[in-house]
């Protein structure tokens, strides 16, 4: 008796799989807390702050991803955050005002901006749902925004088990 041929229906389906985990930036993520620059965790003294900025070793932020926060209950002038950005920019890979989640959102936003939606024109696309690295929900929302106008169908999950999200109407 002959063994029946095994057919991989997923491979033959023409579905394009998109794994957002591939867009995860491997660089270290750190928090810069402006609280450490405040006098008594309450007041930013401009002269002291500028002296700190001048003497601080900014090279330690080389290729790192920095979330800038102030965890103290203090009023910090906007220019203080701008000065931090001026000093981080030559070194850090990326920096944002906000917590680590805001940083992760920005990293994925930057990475997904490199995707050309036209590469998925008329395609049946499944956005993979399982990943080793944390992929923020904002990345799934962004890829949906980018692909929905051009794809034939958009699904979530794995090619063998998907949740349909969008199907272009037949004309």
What is the secondary structure topology, with strand pairs?
Elements lengths: L14 E4 L10 E5 L12 H10 L9 E5 L8 H11 L5 E4 L2 H13 L11 E5 L8 H11 L5 E6 L2 E7 L4
Parallel strand pairs: 1-5, 2-3, 3-4, 5-6
Antiparallel strand pairs: 6-7
SS content category: alpha/beta
What is the spatial order of strands in the main beta sheet? Answer: 1-5-6-7
Which radius of gyration do the C-alpha atoms yield? Answer: 23 Å
Average pLDDT, all residues: 91
Write down the domain tally.
2
- Which word captures the global form? elongated
User: What oligomeric state best describes the polypeptide chains here?
Assistant: single chain
**Tally of DSSP β-strands:** 7
Question: Helix segment count?
Answer: 4
Q: Give the percentage of residues in beta strands.
A: 15-25%
Helical content stands at 25-40%
């Amino acid at each position: 008796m002959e063994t029946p041929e095994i057919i991989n229906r997923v491979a033959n389906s023409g579905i394009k799989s998109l794994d957002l985990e591939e867009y995860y930036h491997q660089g270290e993520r750190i928090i810069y807390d402006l609280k450490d620059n405040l006098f008594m965790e309450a007041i930013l003294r401009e002269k002291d702050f500028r002296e700190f900025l001048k003497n601080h070793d900014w090279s330690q932020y080389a290729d790192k991803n920095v979330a800038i926060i102030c965890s103290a209950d203090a009023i910090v002038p906007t220019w203080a955050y701008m000065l931090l950005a001026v000093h981080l920019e030559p070194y850090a890979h990326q920096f944002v005002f906000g917590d680590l989640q805001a940083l992760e959102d920005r990293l994925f936003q930057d990475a997904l901006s490199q995707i050309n939606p036209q590469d998925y024109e008329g395609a049946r696309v499944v956005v993979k749902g399982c990943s080793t690295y944390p992929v923020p929900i904002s990345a799934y929302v962004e890829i949906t925004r980018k692909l929905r106008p051009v794809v034939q169908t958009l699904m979530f999950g794995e090619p063998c088990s998907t949740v349909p999200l969008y199907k272009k109407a037949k004309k």
